[in-house]
Amino acid sequence: MNCKGLIYEISAYLDGELTQETLTEIEIHLKRCQDCRLIVDTTRKTIDIYYSSQPLPLPDDVRERLHEALVKRLGRRPNS
Amino acid sequence: MIHATTTCANLLHGAWCATITPPAKRMSSPEPKHLPSTIVREDEGALVSLAKSGDLGAFDELVNRYERRIFRLTMNITQNREDAEDATQDAFLKSFQHLGDFQGGSRFYTWLVRIAVNEALMRLRRRRPNVTSLDEPVQTEEDLMPREIQDWGPTPEQRYQSTELNSILNDAIAELEPIFRTVFVLRDVEQLSTEETADALGISVPAVKSRLLRGRLRLREKLNRFFEQRKPA
Fold first, then answer.
1. The CATH fold of domain B141-227
2. I need a labelling partner for B90 at 20 to 30 A (CA). Which of A61, B115, B166, B227 fits?
3. CATH architecture of the region B36-127
4. Looking at the predicted structure, is the pLDDT value of residue B177 above 70?
5. CB B87 within 8 A of CB B119
6. What is the DSSP letter of B158?
7. Mean pLDDT across the stretch B168-174?
8. Residues 104 to 163 of B: which have CB under 8 A from any A CB?
């Protein structure tokens, strides 16, 4: 496994989708390649940071327009 | 665009407003990675069954449950608030109108996401017809290889206030080509599986994996300029 090979496998590595054989090759490479360790670490952080960004509350005006449109288009109120 | 003249409390006997939206939480206790625990799935299934029989109250609960995530999704894809609002509205309306077609073989949320993605992509193509091809762009190895390799430190996001961080994340994702952005958002933000993402976009599993790899690496590169640990001068 060289650096280029690692880059191609980085997504599968982070998603835990690799075979044991490829996983072992990557771990051996990572032990001796600081650049690849940094790339793996920062790619993982990229995913984690986006994942942790919770959906913001729907702005009130958007929420009201959405619900008003649903009421209008669906023609009646729930449970009525 | 419909402009609201009624306050939220007046709508539907308050039913639309039953869920109080909590303040946004960032970088602390993220929501569970996978929404469909057995309980949620069963609960969702019961709501869908009721909605299918015409119970708008049950559908209302589904809207309350997913409106923020669907709006975030459509915003991420369209990068335009007006289009995102319209896509969100139409996604919920169409999902209600076509509930009879939903067979329950997948999660309702996944099915809703598929509709919302189609609505969002349609508006994106309309607005930017020349730059919204979902065909695989020509890629070279050079495109893939990282150029910036710096340490970010343990928690780079904590160097920014939440509004500033939001702005950084939004700007970076907006710069991604739509085909990478859409796959990244579905997989890494909305937490759909590779198969669900392929299904939602009508592309193959290998295509999802290839686009996800490129999307992740490109975003990493874009965030690097904000998160690299600068050595003291």
1. Arc Repressor Mutant, subunit A (1.10.10)
2. B166
3. Orthogonal Bundle (1.10)
4. yes
5. yes
6. G
7. 92
8. 141, 144-146, 149-152, 156-157
